């Protein structure tokens, strides 16, 4: 199988290198091909998502993605900024389903700002819709009739978009503790009202899953109050962006959290990335935690290569490394990115 | 001065009664007039915001609001549901500035799911825009060209809307620790890009305030990680809805948090309400915490009646009651709503 390695900007290359080392250590038949993306893509060829990079991503069996974002390019027009690469890949590869697990690794109870008893047994999955919502609607600047500058973005979902992400949520819940919480703002948004309607329709096919609905403001509160009550959360693109970053704090550090972005349940063309960003402030210092990238590689094996056994080998190794006390700076330790990679490799059995 | 008392649904009447008792105990020259709103308005006259209620709110010097929301009316069309009353009052009274302080009262460190050292010294104010954004844009259901049901909502801000709320944020910060954090999603939304542009323009008039910008996903994370680093946060309607509910957890309980909604900096026609909702599950049981309502009454005195001294008397009384160990169920105690009101009244000096 061919893995496209798009390491990107900031700490992306550092953490992706460790993920690749771990994948290589498994002795599987994998081929790796690298290509620039984000700010790196812009520097290499004048655009954040160079055509060759996109072609590689499409050709590959899976994409291992690092991070994008570089303040040097913030002043460029939107289509040239690093973020455009990420949004472009999601759209071009049809990656509508973003799976973001948040698990507390034993030993990290103290790394969380939440009380240990609040995060004990935390094991949630956020299923975030990734190719619709206000992210991809018509948007722009215009002048109002009164001559005022105005910015606007169109938010919408249609029933097919909601149905397919709802199915991912229910399928995920079915394989876990069978609780699905759908998050929306149906008391204010028509988009949410359709969302709720369709999720209810899909639920008829999943009588074994207990479905609840929650407003996003309440969900943001409950994720701090009683995060371990959640099993699977399914939500739209914008709310998912906010809630999954927030949930990362329950897991101790955003440096521990991987993600998978899928275009269908079979995992073809999936893209795998840590949910943290490019962290320009620590880029190049060797301080970044590579665990999120390494755990993303595990998700790659699980979802795109159907190799559950190897995925679990990686996850067990990360768990063991953490249990043995290996800690990067974000977890209150002193290990470098490379040393944390070494620690995981040592535990790989 | 005339105070319109719109107690509303669920626990609204119970907590508002305590707030009114505290106001009455101050011996000020206040007149109170009650009117039904929300589900109560619908029951009384077939609409959530009866014309007489709106007229009273407009005529009054300030509105003391309880809560709206009643599951019995969830199936009604949007304009008849309780929420329509709240959105209608905000729009009709032009209440564009929603001020939501989140302070940790000494003694409540343990009530928060966050570690005591994380919430120590918490004292933030969220300034939320309240009459624009995707809340008030064009919205509806339609059928796409492919024959699919679609829900949509239009998000937008114009420069005047952003400017006036930014001014509130800067003015607030100027009177406090002089740090303003503007929260948006400018890497994805054009609405946010205009937001950021205008906030930067307004900042020129406030050289003494240190302005930062933060993406909403990161803000949701930082509000869990290091909430006490924030001083004043200014943000749009939707993000403010999410972040302020989330921030309430830092303060121990949403039952402690008041809010003010203003149509201008002078406070004329302001509306004051606890940020919690109607809590239908405990309505009528006498379990609700009246502190948020009582503290909202304090904000009413401060902002609409320019009576800072009386506002501080109330706040000091709540603080003393909490310090003396008075606790309702949400804070892990056993006091009833009325008993908590008594505890505050006892401390009123
Ligand atoms: C970089 C940004 C466009 C992106 C998003 O908002 O989706 C990021 O925050 C994420 O969650 O992957
Ligand atoms: C009830 C609802 C419409 C309202 C809102 O979203 O503004 C509430 O959550 C609030 O924050 O006051």
From TrEMBL, chains A, B:
PROSITE patterns: IDH_IMDH (PS00470)
Pfam family, one: Iso_dh
Swiss-Prot/TrEMBL site (Important for catalysis) positions: 135, 185
Keywords: Amino-acid biosynthesis, Branched-chain amino acid biosynthesis, Cytoplasm, Leucine biosynthesis, Magnesium, Manganese, Metal-binding, NAD, Oxidoreductase
EC number, as in UniProt: 1.1.1.85
The Isopropylmalate dehydrogenase-like domain, residue ranges: 2-344
Sequence positions that bind substrate: 90, 100, 128, 217
GO MF annotation, one: 3-isopropylmalate dehydrogenase activity
Reaction(s) this enzyme catalyzes, per UniProt: (2R,3S)-3-isopropylmalate + NAD(+) = 4-methyl-2-oxopentanoate + CO2 + NADH
The keyword NAD is assigned to this record: yes
Keyword Cytoplasm part of the UniProt annotation: yes
Enzymatic class: oxidoreductase
Pathway info: Amino-acid biosynthesis; L-leucine biosynthesis; L-leucine from 3-methyl-2-oxobutanoate: step 3/4
Location(s), subcellular: Cytoplasm
Record-listed Mg(2+) binding positions: 217, 241, 245
Subunit structure: Homodimer.
Assigned protein family: Belongs to the isocitrate and isopropylmalate dehydrogenases family. LeuB type 1 subfamily.
Record PANTHER family: 3-ISOPROPYLMALATE DEHYDROGENASE
Protein's recorded name: 3-isopropylmalate dehydrogenase
């Amino acid at each position: 199988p061919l893995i496209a390695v798009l390491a990107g900007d900031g700490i992306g290359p550092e953490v992706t290198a460790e993920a690749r080392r771990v994948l290589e250590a498994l002795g599987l038949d994998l081929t790796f091909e690298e290509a620039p993306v984000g700010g790196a893509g812009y520097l290499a060829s004048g655009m954040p998502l160079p055509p060759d990079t996109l072609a590689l991503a499409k050709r590959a069996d899976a994409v291992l993605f690092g991070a994008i974002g570089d303040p040097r390019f913030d002043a460029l027009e939107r289509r040239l900024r690093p973020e455009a690469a990420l949004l472009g890949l999601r759209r071009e590869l049809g990656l509508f389903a973003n799976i973001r697990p948040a698990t507390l690794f034993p030993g990290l109870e103290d790394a969380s700002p939440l009380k240990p008893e609040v995060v004990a047994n935390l094991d949630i999955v956020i299923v975030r819709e990734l190719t619709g919502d206000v992210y991809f609607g018509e948007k722009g600047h215009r002048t109002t009739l009164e001559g005022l500058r105005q910015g606007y973005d169109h938010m919408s979902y249609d029933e097919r978009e909601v149905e397919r992400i709802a199915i991912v949520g229910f399928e995920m819940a079915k394989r876990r503790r069978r609780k699905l919480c759908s998050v929306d703002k149906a008391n204010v948004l028509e988009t949410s009202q359709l969302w709720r309607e369709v999720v209810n329709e899909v639920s008829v096919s999943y009588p074994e899953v207990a479905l609840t609905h929650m407003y996003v403001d309440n969900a943001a509160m409950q994720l701090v109050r009683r995060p371990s009550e959640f099993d699977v959360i399914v939500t739209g693109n914008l709310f998912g962006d906010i809630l999954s970053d927030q949930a990362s704090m329950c897991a101790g550090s955003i440096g521990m959290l991987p993600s998978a972005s899928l275009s269908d349940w079979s995992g073809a063309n999936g893209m795998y990335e840590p949910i943290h960003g490019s962290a320009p402030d620590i880029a190049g210092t060797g301080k970044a935690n590579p665990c999120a990238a390494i755990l993303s590689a595990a998700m790659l094996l699980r979802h795109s290569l159907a190799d559950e056994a190897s995925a679990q080998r990686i996850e067990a190794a990360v768990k063991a490394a953490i249990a043995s006390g290996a800690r990067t700076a974000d977890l209150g330790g002193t290990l470098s990115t490379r040393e944390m990679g070494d620690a995981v490799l040592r535990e790989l059995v």
